[in-house]
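Please describe the entry underneath.
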Amino acid sequence: MSTAAEHARGRAEPDGTAARARGLTKAYGSGETTVLALDAVDVDITRGRFTAVMGPSGSGKSTLMHCLAGLDTVSAGQVWLGDTEITGLKDRELTRLRRDRIGFMFQSFNLIPTLSAAENITLPMDIAGQRPDREWVDQVIDTLGLRDRLGHRPAQLSGGQQQRVACARALASRPELIFADEPTGNLDSRSGLEVLGFLRQAVDDLGQTVVMVTHDPGAAAHSDLVLFLADGRIVDEMARPTADTVLERMKRFDTVRAAFDDTSGREK
């Protein structure tokens, strides 16, 4: 499955492919205990788009993100970030690539409690010895509405504000690709909507590319395209999603799984 240009929400043609995988396979264990998390997946992530990845628990969605981001090794197949094949990189090269070209947002925020919001935002660049582009960082801070919170430490911020700081940190180095793993999972509905709105802005106003793993149809509705995984394979995709259409598609997974459980005699 690929994210084609016609999936865009009325925006200009995307400038190429941000990431892609061919025959991506990930297995855990060996012999009779082998679990196939990803089964020969082919996928293209279009630059300048917001892509959501959904599927039932155990479908492989987080594994797909981790392999595309170079956070996990692959059992077979190839992964590229832009024109760089990352599956053949050594650990040091992969660490540098993740630091310089990829931004990450996680459900748990992963902020350093002893640092201010401003210090958390620039921390990856500080560690790398890189000088931030102040004009860009200021644009990110203002887009996310964090100007009056820069001196606050994480404990002095709400959950939504902490995730906005995490979003700013992911954007600060102007990465080629941002991966967000359940970024609203620890937030109330209002804060979650704010963060999703900011991710949408990052794509529309700042030209970023976002890949988000989520189980929430409402969150997926903020994307340009939803990829659906089941049993380690991409089985469907949906352009211009709404919460209702995504929910209806997810219900089909439950129906199929229930029918399989009835046929096999397993407990539901």
